[in-house]
């Protein structure tokens, strides 16, 4: 019995994926901005973008063609519709999970100085996800009422009602979400020290046996013996520094010349890293983080020089390659 998915099949799909990313790249900034307005969090926005791109890729491959009456006649509307549906489903699922777990809303003490802000957050959360999406689609991205009705699968009258409710909630909403939990300072420092000294055994030992390595949009790996440490420390001109983004400890990767080219988030306990997420192929997320930290940024293109792209397609274990092009 032959394997249902061969290496040749995987390489063909990976080639098609990169072609797809090249095609939609002009739409990515607007899509990321939409996700950021919906979620209020740069990491959640990137997750929504990645899920949207994957869904679009699958739906186009399944048969959504660019012809008369096709949903892909307007690629921007097509991707925004996918993002809207994914986000609404995510919000509803989270609400069901909270209800199933029986989690009551946290009362705010009257003396709490943040009571007004928390009250605004609660008001915004009380608005339906459709109302929030309608406001962003109309007031930020200037979609017509008819286009929004199509996005939200409702009527123009329903959109007008949603806009009224959503604008009231949005006007009172707090701008910033609560900070996330992050790795300990000791773990971040240990990780950075091992990397900057190009100490592969120590860097490998910092990872759990089943550590997940994720490179959104490109690939990833699993396990401390998957080659991530060797491939990463091979970039001789890279240095790492600790950083804090909205209260969360992150790892900043600087290229030769001092520009930021990657932000890495770590998960784990006091001793070992269980998950690494590299955002080097997420240009809009990188720009948002760099702007807030007031850093110069260099962006990796999805498509590298042909010889590097060929290596990236040839294997999924080293998706970041060597000699990556900064532009």
What does this entry look like structurally?
The chain is of the alpha+beta class. The chain has two domains: 7-172, Up-down Bundle (Butyryl-CoA Dehydrogenase, subunit A, domain 3), CATH 1.20.140; 185-314, Nuclear Transport Factor 2, Chain: A (Roll). It has helices at 7-24, 28-39, 42-62, 75-101, 115-126, 129-140, 145-152, 156-172, 185-196, 200-205, 228-233, 283-293, 306-314; strands at residues 207-215, 219-222, 239-245, 248-254, 260-268, 273-278. Strands 2-1-6-5-4-3 form a six-stranded mixed β-sheet, with helices on both faces. A hairpin with a 2-residue loop joins strand 3 (239-245) and strand 4. The longest helix is centred in the first third of the chain and has 27 residues, at 75-101. Residues 106-126 have low confidence and may be disordered.
Secondary structure layout:
Layout lengths: L6 H18 L3 H12 L2 H21 L12 H27 L13 H12 L2 H12 L4 H8 L3 H17 L12 H12 L3 H6 L1 E9 L3 E4 L5 H6 L5 E7 L2 E7 L5 E9 L4 E6 L4 H11 L12 H9 L13
Parallel strand pairs: 1-6
Antiparallel strand pairs: 1-2, 3-4, 4-5, 5-6
Main sheet properties: 6 strands, mixed
Strand order of the largest sheet: 2-1-6-5-4-3
CATH superfamily of the largest domain: PhyR, sigma-like (SL) domain
Average pLDDT rating: 81
CATH domain fold name of the largest domain: Butyryl-CoA Dehydrogenase, subunit A, domain 3
Task: Please compute the radius of gyration using only Cα atoms.
Answer: 22 Å
The level-1 CATH class of the largest domain: Mainly Alpha
Question: pLDDT under 50 segments (min length 5)?
Answer: 106-126
Going by helix content, strand content and strand pairing, the class is alpha+beta
Total separate domains: 2
- Kindly estimate the percentage of residues that lie in beta strands according to DSSP: 5-15%
| SSE topology string | HHHHHHHHHHEEHEEEEHH
> What percentage of residues falls in helices of 4 or more residues?
40-55%
Number of distinct beta strands: 6
